[in-house]
Amino acid sequence: MSSTSSSRFDLGDHVQDQDLSEEYLTSSSRDYSAGSSPLTTPALSDNEFDFDVPSENVLAEEGSIRLAPADGSEKYIMVIGGLGYIGSHTTLELLREGHNVIVVDNLSNSYKTVLKNVKMLAAHHCKVNNVAMPRLRFFRIDYRSKAMSSLLERYSKPVMAVDATSGRQVVSYQSQIAGVIHFAAYKSVIESIAQPLRYYRNNVCGLVNLLQELERFNIRNFIFSSSATVYGSKANAGKPLKEEDLVHHQVKTQNEAGETTIVEPTIEGLSCPYARTKYFGEAILADVAEADPDWRIVALRYFNPVGCDPSGVLGESPRGEPTNLFPVLTQVLKGDRSNLNVFGSDWPTRDGTAIRDFIHVLDVARGHIAALNWNSKKGNGFSTFNLGSGTGTTVLEAVRSLEQAAGREIPLSLVDRRPGDVGTCVASTERAAKELGWTTRESITKCAADLWNYVSKVALRS
Ligand code: UD1
């Protein structure tokens, strides 16, 4: 349980005016998954930073931009994995909504140019709307490294507090970080089957260590990237998946007839290590919140995020071979792959291909902001929300929408089902609509149009 602060002492303002700059701790960018110990990473210190790409260049392109003031007391949202596909769109939406953002990313599955593009789009938004540009800070560090601790310390002020159990005065922290969104996890089903320990080490051990660090700095407002994959084979029941279809502790809920029922935690058919890492992550978070009611934790269960910002500047650009449907389709459209293998045409669906709940990535990003706002005002313990549209689209229908957007045919081969796939996976959207006041705005047609816009612009740029 956290203690309450009584008095405060100041160790001086250790936050320098480096906003909108990119800060690199190069030694921490090594790949810990390869076996080297994160404990060897040197602590973060001012002279270890390597400043890059002066932000003024970006701002100059946009004309005069007013920067939100910073006096060391301003609040930030920390986005871990903030340059990945969903992370970068969320960072952008946070900035557009006026939040100061600290991005932590080791660039293991993203690129530095993404930061520049996010800055540019946010600056453009601020200019058009005549509002001050929020602070954006970037740290190229592995969130599992020791540098993370130094970074959290940098944004914290020590305060004297009374320990709730012993009644003694202890040193505690007051952080400028008002909330953390944690995206930094591995997400390939196939890779997780081949390298389970790598997945457990990052997605599970990494999460546990991060939570310990956050607790130390009294940061207990946490948004976790979960996935519809936690429903496992329950998806195949053919009904929209409700959050109470997977709970971690016994809960009382009301059924459709308005009667109170007790739901027990049961899991069914988690098909791969990736799915289990997400399940374990949620279970750990539920236990942490149960033990300490000061935690406010939301797990967002993503269905199938696709599309990109309509500017065509920001998209999904993973390193390595993509395996998800839309990134593979992007490769086909760009000519990097000859055709799409459609995995399974014998599912019990309207055209035999699997049904998914595709959701525009900007809707997903807005879902995070809705969850943050909800968590700050009403959050209590551990909560789960589906981020889905509630509409099922078959793989072939998704392909057709992209064909329409691109005005050309996409070559297909119908092949066997992919191991671990489910036939149907669609969200119930009721809880997110009622509690968060969040629903999707965009359709699959808009997802396809935005993706094609991105693909054609990338083709023009290269
Ligand atoms: C799954 C999870 C999702 C998770 C994601 C991470 C479920 C229901 N969903 O998404 O929560 O975030 O993994 O990777 O478990 N397809 C093809 N050809 C391809 C690629 C995909 O036909 O080349 C098909 C798949 O078989 C599937 C559909 O397209 O039926 C969507 O696949 P994909 O984009 O990989 O996402 P999911 O597997 O649904």
TrEMBL record:
Lineage: Eukaryota, Fungi, Dikarya, Ascomycota, Pezizomycotina
Gene3D superfamilies: NAD(P)-binding Rossmann-like Domain (3.40.50.720), UDP-galactose 4-epimerase, domain 1 (3.90.25.10)
Organism listed in the record: Sordaria brevicollis
Polar residues composition bias: residue spans: 24-39
GO cellular component: cytosol
GO molecular function annotation: UDP-glucose 4-epimerase activity
Residue intervals of the NAD-dependent epimerase/dehydratase domain: 77-388
Superkingdom field: Eukaryota
Full protein name: NAD-dependent epimerase/dehydratase domain-containing protein
